[in-house]
Specification:
Blueprint: E1 11-14, H1 22-25, E2 31-36, H2 40-43, H3 46-54, E3 58-62, H4 71-84, E4 88-93, H5 95-107, H6 115-119, E5 131-135, E6 147-152, E7 157-162, E8 170-173, H7 183-201, H8 209-231, H9 236-249, H10 263-275, H11 279-293, H12 299-310, H13 317-334, H14 348-360, H15 374-384
Parallel strand pairs: 1-8, 2-3, 2-4, 4-5, 5-8
Antiparallel strand pairs: 6-7
Domain Fe-containing alcohol dehydrogenase-like C-terminal: 187-356
Domain Alcohol dehydrogenase iron-type/glycerol dehydrogenase GldA: 9-175
Protein name: Iron-containing alcohol dehydrogenase
Length: 385
């Protein structure tokens, strides 16, 4: 197992009615900005619950954060926080709202050009406002990590940053808040969570026994949850399990002491930036293709994944690897999520554009060993065609 440092300060309040406990998490003198996306937070009653829990505190609201949060929109929130002298941020929504709120938290006290926070991958930020979250869409794990991905409309960039200053102080996870979601968004959450786990698991063995078994348990849970939640969307226990699995998939625990490969996410970000395809759906096109192209480098873990998650133990090693890659594709497809770029009318010229974007953003040596060059990324995209 590799050396690691694990730190996670986020308090989780999980279950029905937990939004009311916001009152306990905030100082009576807190001046709060509530950030959210579209009208669904209002229609579902989540914002009403949040307002009631905030009580007599001074608070303002900022809506309109996009599904891929943009620098342009978020800078308007930064201006509002500064003008109103607000001192606590509360994200109400899914990963995009939480990611956007983290950027605002770091940008408000930043004295230079806030875009530099993203260009520096978060290292430029030395201070941040405190923040909390109320989760309405289980998918990204942003409620319990210090990661954020932000787009810039004027340049077409989509960049990730990480800084421990933007860990949420607390996150409220009430599965009832997910009941009004369109099923497409719920399924996107299943796929996003699945790939989050795989990018910390599908590398090479380092004898991380707890991490591997934990990851395999999360993957097996998602394989079970996916089709069942489509069949019985009002099942509270299924919603609860999906919500907690999504959080555990990216809160740092399963990735401690093991190598990571975030190639799928980096390529997926470029697809979303150019074509505005849902993030999870870009992952479903890239990840199986990556397994095909990198099957030799990931051979040992592919065989372990085949046996422990899909119970594939018969046949030669190559036959088992072929079978488990097919199983992964079939799982996504069974949920109505395409695994081919052609489903989005992305052809050879589009692949050329995506490779150029990867080069422009310095994504020239990806993977657990840094050997996913632009040529390898092109092969992955071609395998996804």
């Amino acid at each position: 197992m590799q050396n690691f440092e694990f730190y996670n300060p986020t308090r989780i309040l999980f279950g029905k009615g937990m939004i009311a406990r916001l009152d306990e998490q905030l100082s009576p003198e807190a001046r709060v900005l509530v950030l959210y996306g579209g009208s669904s937070a209002e229609r579902s009653g989540t914002l009403a619950e949040v307002r009631a829990a905030l009580g007599s505190r001074t608070f303002r609201e900022f809506g309109g954060i996009e599904a891929n949060p943009t620098y342009e929109t978020l800078m308007k929130a930064v201006v509002l926080v500064r003008e109103e002298k607000l001192d606590f941020l509360l994200a109400v929504g899914g990963g995009s709202v939480m990611d956007g709120t983290k950027f605002v938290a770091a940008a408000v006290p930043y004295e230079g050009e806030p875009w530099d926070i993203l260009v520096s991958k978060g290292e430029a930020a030395k201070k941040a406002l405190p923040l909390g979250t109320v989760v309405t869409l289980p998918a990204t794990g942003s409620e319990m990590n210090c990661l954020s991905v932000i787009s810039r409309q004027s340049t077409g960039d989509k960049l990730l940053f990480s800084n421990p200053l933007v860990y949420p102080r607390f996150s409220v996870l009430d599965p009832m808040r997910t009941m009004s979601l369109p099923m497409k968004q719920v399924i996107n959450g299943v796929v996003d969570s699945f790939v989050h786990v795989m990018e910390q698991y599908m590398t090479y063995p380092v004898d991380g026994m707890a991490q591997d078994r934990f990851s395999e348990g999360l993957l097996s849970s998602l394989v079970e949850i996916g089709p069942r939640i489509v069949a019985t969307p009002d099942d509270y226990d299924l919603r609860s399990n999906l919500m907690w699995v999504a959080t555990l998939a990216l809160n740092g625990l399963i990735g401690a002491g093991v190598p990571h490969d975030w190639t799928t996410h980096m390529i997926g970000h470029e697809i979303t930036a150019k074509y505005h395809i849902d993030h999870a759906r870009t992952l479903a096109t890239v990840f199986p293709a990556l397994l095909k192209v990198r099957r030799n480098e990931k051979r040992a873990k592919l065989l372990q994944y085949a046996a422990r998650v899909w119970n594939i133990t018969d046949g030669t090693e190559d036959e088992r690897i072929d079978a488990v890659i097919r199983k992964t594709e079939e799982f996504f497809e069974s949920l109505g999520v395409p695994t081919r770029l052609s489903a989005y009318d992305i052809g050879a010229e589009g692949i050329n554009d995506l490779v150029r974007q990867l080069e422009d953003h310095g994504m020239t040596h990806l993977g657990e060993n840094g050997d996913v060059t632009l040529d390898v990324s092109r092969k992955i995209l071609e395998a996804a065609a």
